[in-house]
Design brief:
This protein is an alpha+beta fold. It is built from twelve helices and 18 strands.
C-alpha cells in the first residue's frame, strides 16, 4: 500500500472532464528538492548494449538534490518558450531499457520521470522461458520478450488538460496533485516542497498517459463539481460556520481517499529499490495485475520513516493489465503451458489464444500455434 502520510487532500477543481485534487503538506520536506531538466530533442535513443536499444519520447528529466540547504541552480536546466515546451509528438513507442537514473554530482541524481516505472513494467519477466519447453520457439528461448513495446500518449493530446493546468489555482502549501479524467484516476504526482510543485506543475503536460485516459478525455462529458452544502440551521455564529466548513472538508477528504483514490492507495504493490539518495530511497513499484480494478505502476522517493517525498504514477489500460497478469502467471508456473492453463482454469488452446491476443504469439512455435488454432476452430 501507498501511505500518503503528511499529505492532506483539499477540495477538487474541475475543468470539463478533468478534475485536479490538490495535495498539501503541513510540513514541507526541505532537505530534498526536485528540478526539471528539459531536453533538446523529444525523442531519445540509448544503446543499452550491442543487442538492445531503448527508444522513447523523453521531453524532460528530474534532478533530485539532497542534503544541501544552500541555493543551487538545477543541473542542465533550459529556458524554453511556451511553444517549445508543447512541441511533443502524439504517441511514441516505449521500449525496454536497463538504466534510468544517473548520478551527476555527489548529492545530485538525474532520472527520467515515469520511465523508471515503465522500465519496470516492460522488463516484467523480460527474459522469457528459462526452461526450453517444446511449445516455445527458438526465438523465445534465445531472445525472450525482446522487443517489448508499449504505447502511451503525451499530456499535450489529452483533451482539456492544457487548459486545466493553466487556469487551476495552486493552493498554499500544495506539494502534489491527483489527476482525474472522466473521474478515472490518471496519475498521482507528489514532490517534497511547494516551490518544487510550482516549478513542475506544467510538466504534467509533458508526462505520459495510457490509452484509457486518452480515450476518456476524447469521449467524456464534463464531470460534476462537488460543492459544499451547509445547512443554515446548523450555523448560529462564525465559529459554527468554521466548524461546518471543516466538517465538509473532512467528509470530502474521506470520500476521496477511500473511494476515488482507493484503487491506488489500497493496492498491494511489489517494490524494487533503484537508488539511494542519502537518507532517501528511490524505488519503483508494480501492481498485482488484478482484473477489473485500477492498476497503476509508479516510482517514489521515501525517507527513512517511509514518508513519501516524491511520487509519480501511470495507470495501465485493461490490455496492459491482461499482459501483466498473463506474464506473471506464466513465470509463476515456469512458463509451462499445461501448468499455466491449469492455474488460469482454461484449456491449453484457450491459453494459446490468450497468448496470441496479448501480442506474444510469436513466442510459440508455428506448429503449436497452428495446432491450437485448429483445435479452436473444431471446437467452435
Amino acid at each position: 500500500m501507498i501511505e500518503p502520510a503528511g499529505l492532506t487532500t483539499r477540495p477538487a477543481q474541475v475543468w470539463g472532464g478533468v478534475r485536479l485534487v490538490p495535495l498539501v503538506r503541513e510540513t514541507p520536506i526541505e532537505d530534498l528538492r526536485l528540478d526539471v531538466r528539459l531536453h533538446d530533442a523529444d525523442f531519445g535513443v540509448v544503446a543499452v548494449d550491442a543487442r538492445t536499444d531503448y527508444s522513447s519520447y523523453i521531453p524532460h528529466g528530474y534532478v533530485a538534490t539532497w542534503g544541501d540547504d544552500a541555493p543551487a541552480a538545477a543541473y542542465g536546466t533550459q529556458l524554453l518558450s511556451p511553444a517549445e515546451r508543447t512541441r511533443t509528438p502524439d504517441r511514441m513507442a516505449l521500449r525496454f531499457h536497463r538504466r534510468m537514473a544517473r548520478r551527476v554530482a555527489k548529492n545530485r541524481l538525474r532520472f527520467l520521470p515515469l520511465h523508471l516505472a515503465l522500465e519496470g513494467y516492460l522488463a516484467l519477466h523480460f527474459g522469457g522461458p528459462e526452461i526450453a519447453w517444446r511449445e516455445w520457439s527458438h526465438r523465445a528461448i534465445s531472445r525472450g520478450l525482446s522487443p517489448r513495446v508499449e504505447e502511451a500518449y503525451t499530456g499535450a493530446v489529452v483533451r482539456g488538460l492544457d487548459d486545466a493546468l493553466r487556469v487551476f489555482e495552486i493552493h498554499a502549501g500544495q506539494c502534489g496533485v491527483l489527476l482525474y479524467v472522466a473521474d478515472a484516476l490518471a496519475s498521482a504526482f507528489v514532490v517534497p516542497r511547494p516551490a518544487d510543485y510550482r516549478a513542475l506543475h506544467g510538466t504534467l503536460l509533458l508526462d505520459l498517459y495510457g490509452e484509457l485516459i486518452y480515450h476518456y478525455a476524447m469521449l467524456s462529458m464534463p464531470v460534476p463539481d462537488f460543492g459544499a452544502r451547509i445547512a443554515d440551521a446548523n450555523v448560529r455564529s462564525l465559529a459554527d460556520l468554521r466548524a461546518e466548513a471543516a466538517r465538509q472538508r473532512d467528509e470530502w477528504t474521506a470520500f476521496h481517499d477511500e473511494v476515488m483514490a482507493g484503487g491506488l492507495l489500497g493496492a498491494d504493490y511489489t517494490y524494487e529499490h533503484v537508488y539511494e539518495l542519502g537518507p532517501y530511497r528511490l524505488s519503483r513499484f508494480l501492481p498485482p495485475f488484478e482484473r477489473r480494478r485500477d492498476n497503476h505502476i509508479g516510482e517514489l522517493i521515501t525517507d527513512e520513516s517511509g514518508q513519501v517525498a516524491y511520487l509519480k504514477t501511470f495507470r495501465l489500460s485493461e490490455n496492459q493489465v491482461r499482459r501483466g497478469h498473463l506474464l506473471t502467471v506464466l513465470a509463476a508456473n515456469d512458463w509451462s503451458l499445461p501448468g499455466t492453463a491449469a492455474a488460469l482454469g482454461v484449456t491449453e488452446p484457450e491459453l494459446g489464444r490468450r497468448i496470441e491476443n496479448a501480442g506474444f504469439g510469436h513466442l510459440l512455435r508455428q506448429d503449436v500455434r497452428d495446432h491450437y488454432r485448429a483445435h479452436r476452430s473444431h471446437a467452435g
